Amino acid sequence: MAKKTISMRRDSHEESAAVIEEAQAVEQTEAEAILSEAQAEPLPAAVKKPSAGSTFAGAMKRGVILENPVLRLVLGTCPTLATTTAASNAIGMGIAATLVLICSNTVISLLRNIIPDKVRIPAYITIIASFVSIVQMLVKAFAPALDESLGIYLPLIVVNCIILGRAEMYASKHAPALSALDGLAMGVGFTTALLCMGTIREVLGAGSLFGAKLPILSGQPILFFSLAPGGFFVFGMLIAAANKLSKKNNLPVRNGCGDCPAAATCSLSGKGGCK
Fold first, then answer.
1. CB under 8 Å to 208, separation ≥6 — which residues?
2. What is the DSSP letter of 249?
3. Long-range pairs, 49-55, Cβ under 8 A, ≥24
C-alpha cells in the first residue's frame, strides 16, 4: 500500500512538472513572438527639444502676427487710439509698454510660487505699477517732450489689459526666461501695431513723418486722420487687414476660451467664448 501511494505521488509530481514545462514553453514562444513584432515595427523618431532660435522665432511670430495684442486680440485700444497721432509718440508708447511687459513678466514668474492665489491680481498690479513708475521717471528725465506728448497715457500703462493679461495667462505659469521672451514678443507686436497706425495717421493727417514734412502731402493734409474718427477708421482697416492675413495663412481658429491668452480679461469668457 505504501509503495502504491509513493508511486502515485511520483506520477503526480511528474505530471505537474510536465505541465509547468509546457506552460513555460508557451510563455517563451509568446514572448519571442512579441519581441519579433516589436523589432519589425519602425521606431518613432526622436523628439527634439526646440532650440533657442526656434523658440525666439515662434514667440515673435505669435506676438506680432498670430496673437498680436492690438490687431488680433483687440487689447489696449485706449492708448492705441490716443497716442498714434504721430509715429514718434507710437514708438515711445510701444517701447515703454515693452519694458514694463518684460520686467513685470520676469518678476511675476519668479514670484509665481510665492504669491497667494487669493491676492494674485493686487500683487500683479503692484508689481506692474512699480515698473511703470520707474519707466515714467526715466521718460521724464531723458525724454521730456515725449512725456508731455503721451501725457496721462504713460502712467495708465498700469491698467493696460495687455500687461495684466500676460501676467495672468503666461507669466504666472511659465519660467522667467520664457516669460521675459513672451513680454518682449507681445511688446514688439504692440509697438508694431502702434507704429503702423501712427505712420498712416501722421502721413495722411499732418503730411509729415517723424516730424519731417513730406513734399507732396504737407501742403494739403487730410485732417480727418488726425482726429478721433480717423483713428477709429485706420484701426478698423488694420484689423481687417490682419484678419485677411490670418485667413490667407490658414491660421488656427480658437474654439472656446481654454487656450486664449485674453480669457482673463474678456467679458465673454464666462459665456461660452466668442461665437
1. 202, 214, 217, 218
2. T
3. 55/178, 55/181
Across-strand partners of 213?
208
The C-alpha cell at 124 is 500683479
- Report if residue 265 sits inside a domain: no
In the structure grid, which three cell numbers stand for residue 171, read together?
507669466
pTM of the model: 0.70
Which amino acid, residue 192? Answer: T
Provide the CA 42 distance to its chain's centre, in angstroms: 36
Q: For 86, list phi and psi in degrees, rounded to 5.
A: -145, 145
Sign of torsion over alpha carbons 200, 204, 210, 212: positive
**Distance of alpha carbon 171 from alpha carbon 155, whole angstroms:** 22
**Beta carbons of 128 and 108 less than 8 angstroms apart:** no
Cα–Cα distance, 132 to 224 (Å, whole number) = 32
Give, in order, the Cα–Cα distances in Å from 240 to each of 64, 90, 102, 243, 246.
15, 20, 29, 5, 10
Give the count of domains, the chain. Answer: 1
46 against 28, higher pLDDT: 28
Residue 97 resides in a domain: yes
Residue 118: what are its φ and ψ, rounded to 5°? -70, -25
Domain that holds residue 136: 59-248
At 209, the pLDDT band (50, 70, 90 cuts) reads confident
Distance CA(247)–CA(175), nearest Å, equals 32
Closest to 101 measured CA to CA, from 180, 161, 156, 169:
180
